[in-house]
Amino acid sequence: ERDPRRAGRVSARLGDVVRAMHGSRRDRYGRPGTDRTGGTDPVEQIVLRRALGHLAEAAARVDRIAAAGHRLLDLLHERHAAVLPRTEYGFIHGELGPDHVLVDDRDEPVLIDIEGAMFFDVEWEHAFLELRFGTGYSCFRRDDLDSDRLRFYRLAMHLSLVAGPLRLLDGDFPDRPAMLEIVEHNVGRTLAQLP
To answer: What dihedral do alpha carbons 98, 191, 78, 67 form, nearest 10°?
Structure first.
């Protein structure tokens, strides 16, 4: 349920909660409670590798992506090359959208479905928050994000949201129109990033 009188207060508090989470830092990425690193590759290299796979998958199935495939490949590499190394990571939810927030009887936001929580680049989460919250993203906005990293992650995120839903549609996914809408939206968002 959405009560406009409470929404502003809850949104502001949700922004505070997310900023506090992102402010919890560690010198290695990965799941909380582990002493080992998440891996040896830099985070941005992992994102690039996945994005290249998503681009290949999307190009094999979407003519408009295939037609722009070489330009998208160049853009991915260009944006990746602009990202400077980092050695500190913030704590992120991993898939935070409106459907992952409950509100208690004191109007406090409660985050649910936290199995994807990890230490990672907070810009990855912000790319997702922009997408999922749309105009409601303003409660999360920060001026200290790495703009090159954010631009790279936005492109990678859109490619993921073309390839992933198409993969789901290979099975018996029940809400096919919703998945096709996600694919179409993200095809448009991907292509809109081309110069």
So the answer is: 140
